[in-house]
Automatic annotation (TrEMBL):
The lineage of its organism: Bacteria, Bacillati, Bacillota, Bacilli, Bacillales. Residues 1-104 form the Thioredoxin domain. PROSITE patterns: THIOREDOXIN_2. Pfam families: Thioredoxin. Coiled coil: none annotated. SUPFAM superfamilies: Thioredoxin-like. This is Thioredoxin family protein. InterPro entries: Thioredoxin-like_sf, Thioredoxin_domain, Thioredoxin_H-type-like. It comes from the Bacteria.
Length: 104
């Protein structure tokens, strides 16, 4: 999984092929909960590029995108939002995989 380095990089990923942004933070217990199974999710959905976004480093971006709770996920393809799984609730592997499976 790629770690986002800049807003410019966010725009590049967003405008390219299928990408899923995972919004997270080091202090977030629910974010740490999903860490062990995320490599399996990434491997299962290899048609997507996965990019981890540190909420604390990109707070303005999160505000602009309406990312209020973490962990949260945003999916794009060629600059078009495909879907979002945004809430402050803990997410299971099954819930994340269902979200990705139902993207159009």
């Amino acid at each position: 999984m790629h770690i986002l380095q800049s807003i410019e990089e966010f725009e590049q990923f967003k405008s390219s092929s299928a990408v899923i942004f995972e919004f997270t933070a080091d202090w977030c217990g629910d974010c740490r909960f999903i860490d062990p199974f995320m490599p399996e999710v990434v491997e299962k959905f290899s048609n997507y590029k996965f990019v981890k976004v540190d909420r604390d480093k990109f707070l303005d971006l999160c505000i602009d995108l309406g990312i209020i709770g973490i962990p949260s996920f945003l999916a794009y393809e060629n600059g078009i939002e495909l879907g979002r799984f945004v809430s402050k609730d803990r997410k299971t592997q099954e819930e994340i995989e269902n979200f990705i499976s139902n993207l159009k």
